[in-house]
Structures are given as C-alpha cells and as structure tokens.
Structures
1.
Amino acid sequence: MVKSIDTIYGTVVRKTNKYMGTVKLPGRLSIDKARKLEHIRIKTYDRHFAEELRAIPKQFPDLDRLHPFYRALLEAYAPIDKIKEEIGRIRAIMKILASIRDEALFQITKAKTLADLKRVRRMYLGRTWDVLEKNKKTFDFLRKLHRVVRRFPRVDFNAKTVVLAGFPNAGKSTLLKALTGSEPEIAPYPFTTQDIRIGHFEHRWQKVQVIDTPGILDRDPSEMNPVELKAVAALKHLADVIVFIFDPFQDPAMQRDLLTKVEHLIRAPVIRVVNKADLLDDPVSAKQEFGADMVVSAQHGTGVDELRSKIIEELGWSHGRRD
Ligand SMILES: Nc1nc2c(ncn2[C@@H]2O[C@H](COP(=O)(O)OP(=O)(O)O)[C@@H](O)[C@H]2O)c(=O)[nH]1
Ligand SMILES: [Mg+2]
C-alpha cells in the first residue's frame, strides 16, 4: 500500500510521540536538557519520515526489467517515463526533508528559551507538511498506480500463450474450459472494466496457457477508449497464437471484421474455428463460409483434441519469441 500524505504525517507524529515517551535523560530540566530532547525528537521525526518514504519506491517493480506485457499495461495508465519521474520524486522529497531536519537541528543549537525550541518544532513540522502537501499529486498518482499493479493478472511468462477471441456468445468461455479441463483463474484486467481468465493444459513437457478476455477481444476496438485500447494491445506481448471462434449463428461479415481488427492489434498466427458443430447440419459448408481451419463443439468436446494439436503445431513453428 502507498499511504496518503495525511496517513504518513500522522504515522510519523504518532510514532515519534510514542518513542519520545520512552526517552529519559538524567539531571534536572534545563535549557540544555530541553535542547537535547528536542534534538532527539527532530531526528526521530526524520527517521520515521525517511522510513515511510523509502518504503514507497520499493513497492513498485523494477520498471527496466518488467516483462513487456506488464510494461504495456502500465503504459495504459501513464508513460513509463512519467512513472519513473514520480517515483524519483519521492527520493527528491526525502532530500528536502533531510535539509529541513538539518536546519531545525541547527536552530536548536541557537535556541535560548523553551519558547524558542517550541518555535523550531513548529517550523519543522509546518515545513515538512508543506513539502508533502506540495507533492500531494505525486503521492496520489503512486497510490492509484499501486492499487492496480498489485492486482495485475499473474501470467506465466514461461508458458506459451493462446489468446481466445470472438464475438460474445461464440463460446470462448466454454472452449477455455474444454481445452484446459479446469476452472480458469479470474483476475481483473487492469484499466478496463473486464476480467481476464487464465487456464492451462500441458503437452509433453510444455505448459500452454489459454487466456480469455471477455468484453475485450469480443468487440470492435474502435469502441474502446484509449486506455482500454492500450490495455488490450498489451496482449500482443503475450499471445503466441490467437484462436478466433466463429459463431455460426451470428453475422459472418461482422465476425470476420472483428477478426481483422484483432489480428491487427495482436499480430500472432491465427487459428480460425467455427464452434457449435453439434447444432450444424452441414459443418463443412459452415467451415467454408467462414474461411475457418476447423469446426468444433466446445460444449460436447468434439474437435477439441484436434484443436489442441493444431495449437501445438502452431507453437512448434512458433515465431520464436520465447525460443
Ligand atoms: N450447442 C452448443 N452451445 C454452445 C457451444 N459452445 C458454447 N455454447 C453455448 O453458447 C453460449 C455462450 O457460450 P460462452 O462460452 O459463454 O460464450 P462466450 O461469450 O464467447 O464466452 C452458452 O450458452 C454456451 O453453453 C457448443 O459447442 N454447442
Ligand atoms: Mg465468456
């Protein structure tokens, strides 16, 4: 979690007060002793501020070593350079706070009365708060980003990946289940209102990951806002093969149009599949009508083994992104 500036400030003050309650110095109260106590107090505030701020950049992945899929997803939120800049800003704030601390420590050495010391503390707290407040946008930006990053879908980058696409109701969810034989893992798809579903099957030593993105690769990308579009485009860094599912009971031209757009967005080899074979009198002519590679019934499992083989074949010739 990245804390808000109010929480950071509150935490620092609370922890410092608590700590100062345990500090006992020998001797009677004198201005000298009060100075020493105030010195410890300012250093304690500073230590806690540094602790709070240092924790922030550590909560983000190393942006230079991030997988392109995650990088592209982050880009949907803000340019990577902007994210780096905002994280860097936290380090700059730490430096400013250190200089305010040094100034306060210096003022303490010159304080002649308890009232002087009180003023130093007020100056220190006021100025540190001002610095946080002036940078509120940075903290808010990183808070929001972090909330999304920590829920990024957990993708296996060592596995080959099949991305399913096709109209709503074409049978993507049913096919995902048929191909992988298990309930998919569901995670929110960042920067969209949709989920991503991930299942997998194994072929010999190789794990194949199958991804369904309902509400994403089933509609015209031109209807998406720029953020959604970037989030969708991130999938191109993942897809080794696209399986495009045609519904024989929906408009062929519109489905082919979607396929063209998906191909354009993702640029991976495509396997074209007509689904719902069990409901077709003439599967062969449906296959021809859609220009498909094969006909399956996701519901009944017909042709699913063949589809798996076709996927493996396609991956075997794969364009070597991860070979
Ligand atoms: N008869 C038949 N129905 C299917 C087949 N595949 C999917 N369906 C049905 O079509 C509807 C939509 O399927 P679903 O997998 O949710 O489609 P999605 O929107 O692309 O994920 C559901 O009612 C499924 O039961 C199939 O091969 N045969
Ligand atoms: Mg679905």
Note: The longest helix spans residues 80-110.
2.
Amino acid sequence: MRVYTTLLDYFGAQGWWPGESREEIIIGAVLTQNTNWANVEKAIDNLRAHRLLSLKKIATIDEPTLARLIRPAGYFNIKARRLKATAEFFVRNKNLKNPPRNHRFMLNLRDELLQVYGIGKETADSILLYALMYPVFVVDAYTRRFCFRHRLIESTRVDYEDIRLLFEDNLPRDVELFNEFHALLVRLGKTFCRPKALCEECPLNRRVFFLSKPIA
Ligand code: SF4
C-alpha cells in the first residue's frame, strides 16, 4: 500500500481503462497486445467509423475485412482472428452481460477465457478487471520490472501467477484499488522505471520496498 499511495500522491488517478463501454474495453484489451495505445485508438476509431465497435458485429464480420480495419494496431491478421474468437466467446455466453459476482464464477470464467484463441493471462485479467469489474491484479512487463528492481521477485521471469498472487494476497481485494494500482505501475514504467531506470527523479527513490526472500 505504501507503493500505491506514493504513486497515487505523485501521479494522481489515471482514469483507466480508456473506453466508453464494456465492449470497447474488451476489444481494446485484445488490440493492445504488443502495441502502444495510440495505435489501438486508430484501430478503434476505424471500427467506430464503420459502425463495427460491437462484439456481435465483430463475431459476424469476415476476417479479412476486420484485419483491414484494425491494421493500425499491428499484427492485424492474427489480431483479427483473436478478436473474432473473443467476440464469438462473449456472444455465445450471453450471461456475461451481467455476470455473477462471486469468486468461483470468476475463476471458472478466467479458465474459459484462457481457452479462447489468442487470449493470454494479461489479456484475460485486463478483461476481467477493467471490463467485468472483478478484483484480479493485471501483471505486465512494467509490473515485473518494478517488482524485480525492488526485490519483490528474484527475476523478471517469475511465473505470472506468482506475481499476480503477490499483489492479490497482500492487498485488499478491491476492484478500484487494482484498477488504479496497475495503471499507476504502467505510468511509473513509462516515466521513471524505464529500461534505463531514472531513480534520481522517481517518487519511489530512497524508499525501500523489498521482501527478505524475494519470490523465485
Ligand atoms: S525508477 Fe528506480 S526508484 Fe523508481 S521504481 Fe524504478 S527502480 Fe524504483
């Protein structure tokens, strides 16, 4: 929590996830794989301009047309297939418009999402947290780098689930907290904790956060 409050005091609330609807957040979570958000926005704008910013419509559109529209997001052929698979999953599972709010349901849903073509853990957890409002901590490369540099993990290759549980088991399970914390870690990673760390100017400098036995 000290990391969180320090970052929140310094950067302020990040207002994540950028997206006007649950469907837009799900679409954005797939498109943002391996690219920056500016490119995702262009792809989303294309879909919106063609009145296709809808999972139902994406599930029925042909793949080459979808690939052409999302081209700005990069890897557009693969992402078109992934996006269609994701859209088909949500269209098939109509109860996800208003999903039950219990942990067991969320864990089952997470397992099912991970079976969808092209949905990895980071994407599944982004959808669960930001679109479906479940308290799941999203782990990305910025999180790994921060954790490693502050000796919370032994290497940046530590298993995704271990890092996720490090946060989930040591913080209140709260959607807003997880939402903001992940967004702040991304901001930290882009601003100070870059590949070449800018520790001198960083708000976390000279504050020691570490585990005596980092997670291996
Ligand atoms: S930039 Fe330095 S002080 Fe800031 S989070 Fe990274 S390692 Fe820590």
Note: The first helix runs from residue 2 to 11.
3.
Amino acid sequence: MTPEEILKEIKESKLGLIDFIHQKSLALLSKDEELKLNAFRFVDVFPSLRSSSEVSKILRAYLSAPLNRTYPILGKLLKLGTITGISLVTKFFASWGITILASKVIAGRTAKDAIPKLKSILDSGQGFTVDLLGEYCVSEKEAEVYKDRYLEVLNSLSKKFTPGKDRPGVPLCISVKLSALYSQTDYLNFDKSVEVISLRAKEIVARAEEVGAQVYIDAEDTATNQIIYAVFEKLFCQDFPKIKYPGIVLQCYLKDSLNTFNRLKDIAVKRGSPIAVRLVKGAYWDVERALAIQNGFDIPVFESKKETDRNFEVLSDKLVENSDYFLPGFAGHNLFSLSYGINLAKQKGINFEVQTLYGMADTLSNALSKRGVFVRQYVPIGELIPGMGYLVRRLVENTSNEGFLRSLWDV
Ligand SMILES: Cc1cc2nc3c(=O)[nH]c(=O)nc-3n(C[C@H](O)[C@H](O)[C@H](O)COP(=O)(O)OP(=O)(O)OC[C@H]3O[C@@H](n4cnc5c(N)ncnc54)[C@H](O)[C@@H]3O)c2cc1C
C-alpha cells in the first residue's frame, strides 16, 4: 500500500454537497491570513451574541477590512448587512454557515442524536470512539455534570451496541478529557488534581467495564499531561489492573515524548498486560509555544514540522517494536505519516489500528478501510457552545499552511 496510490484515490473521489461547501469556504478564507483568523474568532464568539444587530456589528468589526481587501464585493454586502432588517438575514446566514461547519465535525447534541451516524460508521466496517465536548470546567457542579454525561452516554449507547469480542473498543469506546473532571485542575495543585480526577474517572471506567466499553484518555497541554499520566497510572495499575487495553495518547511534537513512551512502557510492564496508545502529533502546538515564551520557559515542542513528522516515525518504530506492551493506534490525517506506521505494523504482523477525526477525512478513512486497515473515528458529541473550542481547533488545523489536509485542496 503506497501513500501515492491512496492520495490519487482521495483526489479523484467525488465530494458530497456539504463537503464541497465546507472545503470551498475554508479554501476561500485561507486566501487571506487575517480573514481566516478573524473568521475563526467570529465562530468562537458567535454563540454568545444575542441580537442580529450584535452579529452584524461583530462581523463588520472582524471582517470588513480583510474582506474589502480580498473579496470587495463581499465587503460591500457585509456593509449592507448592518441595515436593520437585512441584519436579520446576516444573522441567519452566519448561524446557518456555522451550524453546517459544526455538523460536519460534531455528530450530534446527545448520544441518542448521534446513534444513526455511529451505526453507519460500524456498518462501514470502521469503529468509533465517542468524545463529549467540553474542555476546562469552571465549577465542581460542571465537573460532576460532565462525569454524569459520560455515564449517560455509556448507558444509552450500550443499549444500542452490544459488546463484541472481535477487537478492543468495538463496538463501544469512549475518549475522555480528564481536565474537565475537576474545576481546579492545575499543575500547581497536582496531588489534589490527581486525587479528584481519579475518583471521578473511576466511576466512568467502572461503568465502561460493566458495559464492555474501551476507554481512551486524551492528551492535553504539557502541564496537564503530567496530571493525566499520573491518573492513568493510578487507574489502570491500582484500580483496574485487569481491564483490557486501556487507551492513552502520546504526542510526538513534544521534545520529551521518548521519556513519556518509556513511562508508558513501565505502566504496561507493571500491569502485566498491554495498553492501547494513540500516537498523535499534538493539537496544542501554538499554545505550548506561546505560553513557554510568555513565561520564559524552555519551549517543550519541536519548532519545525519536519522534526515532529520525523518523531512520529521514530515513535511508530518504538510502538511496533514493543508490540508486547502496546496496541498502536496511528492517528491523524497525514497519509505519509500514517502509511509509515501501517506498513511497519503490517511487516511485523502485529495488531494495530488507524484513528481519524469524524468528518475531517472521510475519503482517507474509507480508502484505508477498503484496504483492510481497521479505522476508528473519533466522534465528538455535544452542544455547539462547549464545542466551539473543538470546532475552532479543527478549522485552524484544516487551514494551517503547514498542515497536510490543506495540501489536499485546491487552494
Ligand atoms: C483520532 C484523533 C485523536 C486525537 N487526539 C488528540 C489528543 O488526545 N491530544 C492531542 O493533542 N491531539 C489529538 N489529536 C490531534 C493531533 O494531535 C493532530 O493535531 C492532528 O491529527 C494533525 O496532525 P496530522 O498528522 O493529521 O497532520 P499534519 O498536517 O501532518 O501535522 C500537523 C501537526 O504538526 C505539528 N506541527 C505543526 N507545525 C509545526 C511546527 N512548526 N513545528 C513542529 N510541529 C508542528 C502539530 O502537532 C500539528 O498538529 C487527535 C487526532 C486524531 C486524528
């Protein structure tokens, strides 16, 4: 299987109407950096805007200058949109556009809403892992609600999808963002963070075990990751040492990722059974870099994309070499990085999977699945407002100059 052959298939595949609108609008925005960034800022604040005049005002403030420069006709239309009456139409179109963008990458507001989409993923021979949108939380009440929502997702999905025996996490798998389980998650509050998050996560894992679901723990920013790995170790070495294939994430953009790899191997050794590792490049590159510079810390991430790409290959090697301890899940949409891991794992004849984000690379997921690779889609569920952070990260990723996805389009 060569990446070139799959790339050809992806480029030749026909896009549905929504995909076409989605891709073309992102391509149009990407023509001007300020236009793109301000459009994403608008998406971010949109849920908090109440009236149509507010929508028009903010749209104008953010987009007037870049639109007049890049697409003057649209700039004139935007100016027109401030007139009362027409501003209602502007709000309608803004809302419609954002809903289309969101529905492309978020499967539904509730687990129940998402069931038809989850079912169609399983019917196509792929798997899923469900993620509940909502990142940092600001109160203990919110943290409890987030935990209860996971319990509810497990209850409702387990009624629909009975556990199978074929492979871990099929049909049911969830991905959890631990920082949302405690309002005071902070590296400076390390012990308490580990204690409280472990207690809440324990309830989720216990329920997952009852219904036969696999659990992945997502990786976040470097400081939070220290808490995350400590909780992971506590949960799956002390509380649930016998649970099969608990999942964790390893980020290749981090300079110390090899140390993390070794730490994860120690955990697998301690448990006496393998863990599932989702290998990613890392979603917080700009934030990690900016925060380190702002605070005068060493920058924890590689500063050239090539180094991150190379490290993805190094860690793919490590995971495959150590297949007694790990079930590798090569994650991302960069065909070249994924092919590296896939070919390596195939040569060694080990069990592995590929993981992609729901709605981000359907043609890629289908092309790999058609070639016998097991693909698991990471499927977010939730309301639009808590989902904005996720949506904006996906938009940035889709349009990043260095990103692989953008190279697939006609920009
Ligand atoms: C199923 C799935 C689950 C995921 N879960 C997580 C998670 O739990 N935690 C998490 O952090 N991320 C997660 N991600 C996101 C992932 O880390 C990547 O951001 C995303 O997949 C893009 O990487 P790529 O290989 O697909 O694309 P590419 O375009 O090849 O790579 C883009 C990535 O390269 C890196 N990069 C970009 N510019 C530079 C630079 N100048 N120097 C160094 N590195 C650079 C960044 O990591 C960027 O995301 C997940 C992705 C998938 C598909």
Note: The domain at 107-381 is CATH 3.20.20.220 (TIM Barrel).
